[in-house]
Each structure stands twice: as C-alpha cells, then as structure tokens.
Hints:
heterodimer, A: mainly alpha, ABC transporter involved in vitamin B12 uptake, BtuC, two-stranded antiparallel ribbon, 70% helix, B: alpha/beta, Rossmann fold, 2 domains, 19 helices
Amino acid sequence: MTAPADQLAPAASGVREVRSVRLPGGRREPLALFMARVALPLLLLVLLVVFSLLRPATFFTLDNLGTVLTLQAVLGVLALGLLLPLIVGELDLSVAANLGLGVILVTGLTSQQRLPLVVAIVVAAVVCTLVGVVNGLLVTKVGINSFIVTIGMSTVIGGLVSAYTQGNVFYDGIPPALVTIGQGRLLGVPLPVVYAVVLAIVVWYVLSHTPVGRYLYAIGGSREAARLSGVPVRGLTLAAFAGAGLLAGVAGIVQAGILGSGNPTVGPPLLLPAYAAAFLGATAIQPGVFNVWGTIIAVVTIQVGTTGLALVGAPFWIEPVFTGLALILAVATARYLRGEAL
Amino acid sequence: MTGDPAAHPAGEPRPAVAVRQLSKTFLGQRALRQVSFDVRPGEVHALLGENGSGKSTLIKCLAGYHEPDEGAIVEIDGRPMPLPYGPAEATAAGLLFVHQDLGLIPTLTVAENFAINRGFDTAPMGRIDWPDIRRRARAELAVLGHDVPVDRRVGRLPVAEQTIVAIARALAGAGRGARMLVLDEPTAALPDAETKRLLAAVRQVVANGVGVVYVSHKLHEILEIADRATVLRDGRVVATVDVPGMSEQDLVRLIVGHDLPGRTAASAGPRTKGGTRGAASRTSRPADARTGEELLSVSGLRGHRLRGVSFSVRRGEVVGIAGMLGSGRSELARLLFGAQRPVGGEIRLRGTPVRHRTPRDAVRDGVALIPEDRRREGGFLQMPVSRNLTLPAIRRFWRKGRIAGRAERSCVDGLIAEFRVSPAAPERRFGVLSGGNQQKVVIAKWFNTRPDLVIFDEPVQGVDVGAKEEIFGLVSEAAGRGAGVLLISSELDEMLGLCDRVLVLRDGELVADLPGAGLDRTTLTRLVYFGTGRSAETSDSASTTVERALS
Lengths: 342, 551
C-alpha cells in the first residue's frame, strides 16, 4: 500500500511541553515522549522479573534464555527485512511466503538435486532477493499498489512451493552442515541469535548512519517531497523490496537449519507476528518511526511473555491472545502518552 | 429553491444577504476591515480583488469556517443571523458554497453524489430506492436546465458538468431555500467552450431568485455575467459598482487601485519592515545583474502548457515570472528542475545543454526549486526540522563510513540561526511550524546545497506579513550570492520591487520580457490579464463611474 509511514505507524505528535526529563548528554525531552520511548523495554524488564520470581528454577536460566531467543531469531530477521518496505511507506505481504521459499530451496536443492550446500544457499538467497526485485519493479515501474502486488506474489510463491515439494516434507539427505548453521553455538550463544544480532546491527547502521537511511525515511515521509529533494525514490523503493526479499531468504535458510528439514508450511504463519513486531517496535525507542531496536525488543518481549506464560502453566491458547493484546495495548498506550488520537 | 416573495417589496429590492461591518483579525493581523456588501436575490455579484485582498477570508467567514470579529452583522432576508455560526447553520440558512475543489466523490455516480449528501432514500425493508434517487437527481439537475447522465461516475464527466453537479447538489441541500450561492473560481480549470455551459447554468440559478456571489480572475467572464461587483483591496471594500457598461480596463483599475500607475520599482523604496536582512542584501548585491555571466538559457521550451518559451538568466539576476494560474508558470519551474520532461526545446546551464531526467539530476547540476505546495512537496511534515534541513546535502556529512553527527548538528544550528527559524528547535516536527517558518526551512535547506539557479514558486503563499518580508529578502540574497534566481509570484507589487527583469507568461507563451526598473504596476497587471500593456480606449461614461467609485 502506498500509505505513508505516518499512517502505518503511530505518528509522533506535536508534543505540548509540560514536564520534561533530562537525557544523558543534557538534552531535555517531554516526559510523555520519554515514557513512550521506554514503555516497551520496561514491559520486557517487568516480564523478566515477574517470571524469574515465579519460576526461579526454570525461567531465568541460560538454557531457557537460549531457547527463547533462538525461537525468535528467525522472526527477528524476517521483521528486519519487513522494516525496509514499511519505512518507504510500502507493504510487503510476501515476506513470509518468501521465507518458506528459502526453506524449501535450500533443503530441496541439497537433498533432491544433490547440489553442494554453498550453491544451494547462494541460489536460495538470490531467488528470494529476485522475488523482492520483482515486487519492487511492479510497484515502482508498473505502478501497482504494493498491497496487491505482494499478496499476488505471496500466493504465487505458495503455489510454486507446492509444485516443487509435491506436498512432501524434505527429511532425508539434509546436509549436516546446514543443521550446524541452524543449531550450532558460538561461545555458548546459539548461532541464529548471532545472525539476528549481526543483521540488526547492519540494518541499523544503514538506516541510522548512512545517507541511504535518511533517503528511505524521507520517501516514507513524503514521496513527492523526497523526489523534489533529489532523492532517487524509485531506485531506493526497489532496493527496499530487494532487501526485504534477501532478509526473508536468509531467515529461511536459518529456519531450515534449525528444523533440519524442508517443511513448506513454516513460512506463512510468521507473516502476522512479523508485522506485529514491526508495529510494536515503532512505539518504542523512536516512537512513531519504524526502527530496528524497537523491533528487536518487540520480538523478544513477545517471546519472553509467551514462554513465561507457558512456564507458569497458562493454557496453549494464551500465546496468540497475549501477542495480539500486547500489540494493541502498546500502540494505544504510546498514543495516549503522546496525547494524540488516531 | 424559488425566491421568497417576501424578499421583493416595492421599491428598493431587499437584499437576500446583507453583510455589515465585518472584520476579521488573525493573531493581531487584520485580514478584513469593516466589510459591508449585500447580495440581491437574482443577481450575479462579482467579488473581485487580488490574491491576499481578503476574498477567501470573507467567504470563509460567511461559510461559518471563520468566526468574524465582534460587531459584525449578517442578515438574511432582513433577519439577522446569530453570530458566530458554523457551516451547518450556514447551509440551513440558505448560504451555499461551491469551492474550486468541488467536494464531489469522483468514483460515485452523479445520483449517488446527490444521495450521499441528502441521505439515501429507502424503500420498504431498508432497501435503497435507486429509481427514486435517480429521479430526484435528475429533477435537481433539471432546475439548472441540465440533463447530466445521472448514472455516470462523476470523475468521468467534463469539469464543467462536475461543477454543475456540485452547484445543483448545493442548491438541493439548502435548508429553507437557497438565498445565496458563492462560486469560488468555478471556471479556473475550464476551457472556453465549457465555461459557456457553466455560465448558462449560473444564469439559471439567478433566474430562480438566488443571489450568486461569483469569484473569478477572468474579467471577461465578470463582464459577461455579473450585475454588480464588489472590489476588495487590503481587506477593505474599495467599491461596489454596477458592471454593465464597464470595460476590463475599468475593472483592473479598481482591482489594482487608482494610486498605483505612478508607482514603479524604483520608487517602491527599500524594504525594512520585518528584518533589515532583506533591505541590506538588496542593496549589497555585489555585481550588477546586467553584467553577470549568462547562467541559464532556455530556447523554444515546450511542455503540456508551454508553447515554445525562450529567455535567459544571468548570475546575480532576479527574474520574475508573472502569469495567471494555468499560464504555464509552474510548469516552467518543473521543467527546469527535471520534475517533468520537456516536449521540446533546449535548456542550457552555464553554456552547456542539459537534460535533467529527474530532480536528482537537476540538484546535482546546482538547481534548487522551492515548490509552491510547501506542505506536500517542500518538506516532510512528520520529520524533525533538522532532518528536513540537511536532506539534499546529506552526502556532505558522510565521513569515515557514517554521517558525522556533530558536523550535521552544527550545520543545522547554523542554518536555524541564520535563517531565523522560530522556534529554534531542531527536533521539532516540520509540520507544526508556522507557514513562514516552514518556508524558511525549505529555503535554508536549498541554500545549503549552494545552488547556482534557484527557482522560487510562490514563496510567500500562506505566509504572514513579517515572514513575507524576510522571505523576499532571501530571494534577493540568493542573487547576492551569485546565483540566478527565478521568482514566480502572484504578488506583483513585491515582484516589481525585487526583480531585475519580469517575464510575463500567458497561455503558455512569453508575452513580455521587461526590465524591472521603470515597470509600473498597471502595465504589468494588463500584461498578465490581457497579454498587452497598452491601455485600450476606455469608454468615458464607464471611467467616470470608476472615478466616482474610487473617490
């Protein structure tokens, strides 16, 4: 959809100066804005403390922490990719299907076509990126609404994946190296967490410290004003979709390693959680703006919440209810604190 | 819909709507001063005046969008309206408004557009009664003598028919019968042939006893259709005159003011109000604009509207571009900035032919455009002022693999101080600044790219008087820095004071290229309106009418 980011994300408001807080570095900012900024991290902290007290033996252990984070590393990478189109004011609903495509390609090409793992990884990453490029071309050159383009693309990918797998799950012949990629550890830290952190730093660097990042946010702010400011709007919109495709592919490869199998159904259910993370993340750190660390904190908060609830014996259906409520409440709270209605 | 018989007593016709002593003050700024005028039933009453003369403020006060100052009186059929009132009360009282943006929904059919205003008629069981809706829409259009296909989508109709639909819909929505219909520039977007159909519809409206207030810059239309005209200047009523027997020149004299013909650029004097900056830079321009090297040369430039335009601009020169809306002036700006591709012709910058395919190319070539629509095209409403300021020049801060935050911040602080952006809060969102400060931010952001050619498109639109002076000061400062400046503006007085040369565009053609010094206001206005600066013979009787009205 071509809705600007300020419609997709809760917009920062004209804050009335009432009470303010002093930030490290001496700058002051309104108390309400500061509260909005830290609300989500605070919630994460509260959840950690509460569950640690309730289940001291199981919750706050390194093992459990590793499990919690590994589970969400794939979602984190997917959400990072999703941020790019969201920042330029476009939607990409094909990221989750694209992740599924990555899973199937890397497992299928190695187990069925007997290609070397490295080749399979490169092919998967390139194909997923190309999916993003096609999305981007349809949006920028043909001028189709991104919502429609990516819904269509998502459906097409689903069909092609079915054609390739014939409805089967690839179990046999998965190279052990792929499993290592997904299940190995580095200095005790699960590798998927390492990938997610490294990619988060890369995306954060691009968005916050390079001219390209400034341009991406400017496009989301106003396409026409960006164009008239000399920003290459079409090229960067295309690049945002390509980036989303690449990161979906990477997430797919990691997911394949974690599972050790090629299951065509793993992708699509991640779509809504990825969007939830991006929107929830836009309420924190830099309220009103899609941002990397907010998104990462959102992913972790949701996982800590749902795992903790499971450990204290909440029924299975609590998880989606918790996720949905957290999203709605966080956005509502951020709005309330900044004194602006939707 | 038909005139109330009580409104026509013997003798002097009682006005349908009478306005007395209406003033409006915005933040200490008088926009309207003691405006009084009346609209008789069944007359077309033109409301004339230049941009900024107070026409739209007056209309908004009548429509209930602005609250007039204490002491105003608005009477309808002799009965005073309780003030202040809102838009709904205005409609209920029979005060109707059709704005340039017609307020129709283009994707719905004509009949649906009528129904959406009035509520859908329903048949038993809550079903929408489509035959009835169509029938009523047809009947309401027939009042204007028009047979518009009611099942057609509004967006597919010619603009004149859309306007007629909007008028018919407004009339149909009037509570106790329409008393006054205000048409704000209804023909601005119309070709001549369609204008005739619209004027016929307007005649039909007045034949039904409604008073029409007609706002238009097209004076030949006024002469064709208006019975009387009220002229506003600087928020005051200058005159209310009978239109029949007048010439276009008479109207121009009223609009521009009789004291202006003697005034020229040379006698306009230095500007000091609102900042010495403007005055200082005006006088401190280093090189004489006549002797600067040629920066831009345009030959035979054609676009959708422009039909072969040629001119040149020197460094240090301010070249004004005057013309009515639709004359091609904004297109010229877009063509030079690469925001639109030319159909033909050549643009040379510093002697080399250039083809800017995108604004990005133009920016790299040292061209800057301060666009007309500040909020949509000039800046990023949701982004902080700091980000707005450095966007086009952000690559300059790219050092050692990252944006140098400290250098960027000091640049932002410097720009805010230098351009006197208020409040001096770099993290404030651009969208919450006042119009004048937004414009200063947009200008600062472009000056910071150190452009060679700066194009200002209506830089003071919607800007208060103080900031206006500062912004005009910045226009001449750009020239003082050695850039070539193109200034597109409807504020002819200001233009005369600033420009070394003035180009006049009319219907896509360059009709004049005149030195600013010695050019007087009346000549310029005539050029803009008629494409000729010579004053045609004025009928004696009409000109005495004008003299009387002015004294």
